[in-house]
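Hypothesis: this fold can be encoded by more than one sequence.
Test: take the C-alpha cells below, design a sequence, compare later.
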C-alpha cells in the first residue's frame, strides 16, 4: 500500500509532506507603471508559506501540481486550469506541491475596476494565462501594458468549480476534523467518534450541519476529494489514490468524486487541461472512465 508522507501537522491543513520547506511571506516586487505585477518560478520541493497578507489583490496558479490555501476556517484547493484569487489584506497561508510551476499576479486595488471580496477559484483560460505571462515581461512600455491589462480586466472570471472545504471550528468536533485532515483514510464511523468523544452521534451530526452545512459523511467525502485532487495532480493513478484515501474499490472512489465534482477524475483533469490536453502530470486515463 502506498502511504501518504508523514510529517508535522499544521492545524487546519494537510499533514506536511516530508521535506516541506516552510517560507515566510516574500516581499512584493517593485511597483510597475501599470495595475498588474506578474511573475513565475519553479517550486523545487513541497513548499509552505506562513500566514501573511498583501496590500494588493493576488492571483496565483500552478502548472504540474496543486496549490492549497488556508483562509480563516476554509481550505481551498486549486489544480491546473484554475487559479486562486486572494483579496488584498486577507490573511492566508499556502502550500504548493513539489515541482509545480508557480505563477502569481498582483493587482493594485485602486487601479482594478472590479472587486472579488472573497477568496475564490478563477478560470485560468489560455487567453488569461497568456496575457498575464505577457505582463510579466519587463520591457513592456506603458501603452502596451495598459492594453493588455484592459483585456485581463475584461476576461477574468470566477471558475465554475469552487473547491472550498469549510472547517467546523467547533470544539465538539474539531478533533474529528483534525484527525481526518491528518489521515483522510480514517474510516471510523459516526458511532465510533461519539463513543471516543463521550458524546452522541446526534450531537456530532448537528454540529457538522451547523458549522459546515454538510453531514459528517458528506464533509468527509468532500475532504477526501480535496486530498484526491492533490494526489491525482502529482501523477498517482486512481487505484493508488482510492487506496490511500481508504476506499475499498477504485469504483467507490470514482462515485464519491463524481458526487462532489459532478464528473469523474479523468474528465475533471481533461477539462483542466483545456483543448490541447497538455497536463504535465496527467491522470491515468485507463482507470478514470
Amino acid at each position: 500500500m502506498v502511504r501518504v508522507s508523514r510529517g508535522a501537522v499544521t492545524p487546519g491543513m494537510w499533514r506536511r509532506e516530508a521535506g516541506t520547506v516552510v517560507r515566510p511571506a516574500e516581499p512584493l516586487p517593485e511597483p510597475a507603471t501599470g495595475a498588474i505585477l506578474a511573475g513565475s518560478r519553479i517550486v523545487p520541493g513541497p513548499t509552505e508559506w506562513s500566514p501573511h497578507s498583501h496590500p494588493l489583490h493576488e492571483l496565483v496558479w500552478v502548472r504540474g501540481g496543486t496549490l492549497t490555501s488556508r483562509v480563516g476556517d476554509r481550505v481551498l484547493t486549486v489544480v491546473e486550469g484554475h487559479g486562486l484569487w486572494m483579496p488584498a489584506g486577507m490573511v492566508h497561508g499556502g502550500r504548493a506541491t513539489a515541482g509545480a510551476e508557480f505563477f502569481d499576479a498582483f493587482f493594485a486595488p485602486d487601479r482594478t475596476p472590479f472587486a472579488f471580496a472573497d477568496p475564490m477559484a478563477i478560470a485560468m483560460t489560455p487567453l488569461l494565462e497568456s496575457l498575464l505571462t505577457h505582463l510579466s515581461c519587463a520591457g513592456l512600455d506603458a501603452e502596451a501594458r495598459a492594453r493588455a491589462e484592459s483585456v485581463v480586466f475584461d476576461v477574468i472570471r470566477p471558475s465554475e468549480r469552487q473547491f472550498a472545504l469549510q472547517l467546523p471550528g467547533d470544539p465538539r468536533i474539531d478533533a474529528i476534523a483534525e484527525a481526518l485532515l491528518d489521515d483522510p483514510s480514517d474510516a471510523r464511523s459516526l458511532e465510533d467518534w461519539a463513543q471516543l468523544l463521550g458524546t452522541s452521534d446526534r450531537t456530532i451530526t448537528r454540529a457538522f450541519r451547523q458549522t459546515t452545512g454538510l453531514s459528517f459523511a458528506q464533509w468527509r467525502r468532500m475532504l477526501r476529494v480535496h486530498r484526491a485532487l492533490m494526489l491525482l495532480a502529482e501523477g498517482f493513478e486512481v487505484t493508488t489514490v482510492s487506496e490511500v484515501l481508504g476506499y475499498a474499490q477504485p469504483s467507490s472512489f470514482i462515485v464519491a468524486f463524481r458526487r462532489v465534482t459532478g464528473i469523474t477524475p479523468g474528465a475533471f483533469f481533461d477539462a483542466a487541461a483545456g483543448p490541447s490536453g497538455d497536463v504535465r502530470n496527467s491522470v491515468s486515463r485507463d482507470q478514470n472512465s
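Residues 247 and 253 are 6 Å apart (CA to CA). Residues 1-11, 275-289 have pLDDT under 50 and may be disordered.
Hypothesis status: open.
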